[in-house]
User: Fold UDP-glucose 4-epimerase from Mucilaginibacter yixingensis.
Amino acid sequence: MSKILVTGGLGFIGSHAVVELVNAGYEPVIVDDLSNSQLAILDQITKIIGYKPAFHQLDLSVEADVNSLALAEPDITGVIHFAAFKAVGESVGHPLKYYRNNFYSLINLLNAYYAKPVNLVFSSSCTVYGQPDVLPVTEDAPVKPAQSPYGNTKQVAEEILKDMIFSGGSRYKVVSLRYFNPVGAHHSALIGELPIGVPQNLVPFITQSAIGKRGNITVHGDDYNTPDGSCIRDYIHVVDLAKAHVAALRLMEKESFTGYDMFNLGTGTGSSVLEVIHAFERSTGVKLNYQIGPRRPGDVEQVWGDVTKSTQKLGWKAELGIDEMMSSAWEWEKYIETNPF
Ligand code: WQD
Assistant:
């Protein structure tokens, strides 16, 4: 069975990817430093897949530890690299923390398996597009100057990977996946998003407000040039997103695939903040309390993805809609309320 290293495998997207890897017949090996996840998620994954996957707790930014990992796990055929710090706001205040962790981890990992024929899936982000000039945004749209150190780490990481592939020195194949806004949870409600502290992202704030852990939702601005004035994003169900990582591995396993490619992972449909709020109320029957507040610095007005290339070349398309995203997120919030980790 093909062993796939999943760095950040106990995180929100990583844990869902571990489940989809097993569903697709792969053997995941989880690596996580638990800086933004909890060991309890390993038990939750075990409940879903029926066995406890291999797990290594280590900090990928420490070269010696990554080299030890490669000795312990020499026969991996692929890597899905999620592990990175990802809080946009925090990165503005602590740039060196972000550059050190996100770049040291990536480079240590690349060096550790450099001589092996490994298929690497890299977790990138639509944040590299900034505010696109044309919507929906395609993969060949210009990468805009990063709005945050976090966004810069994603842009530079993509360049590092392309430079490595085109230097011809390694046996890697690489696919970068540019996520739009991952939300929702596994249908079992056993895994989902576990924000630390007050959620910065919209959907976890909505579910925590709905369950009474937070006050009213503040809509960050309703004076944008959009139909209802609130910002538009391309929200994608985390399970659909996870399945795209399996499709990326399958693509690289084809003889015809050489080098590097990159794909948008969205639904191709934009939803405004107010539409998301109303979708949550519609799909859960729970009334939300919200008020309009000032714009949030750094927000782009509207962005959603063109997913033609992902559908045609990756052979993948999102299947779950905004109502399933909201209802699954709500089921997860209720689960952790009664089963706190
Ligand atoms: C969505 C919309 C907010 C909270 C971020 C990262 C991006 C990616 C996904 C990693 C915006 C509005 C939010 C609230 C609100 N992460 N909002 N009230 O900023 O699009 O993307 O997460 O790759 O890189 O930047 O997601 O959920 O924070 O915001 O009105 O309480 O919801 O202003 O318009 P964002 P988000």
Remarks:
- The pocket of WQD is lined by residues 86, 88, 125, 127, 179, 181, 200-202, 205, 217-220, 231, 233, 273, 296, 299 (CB under 6 Å).
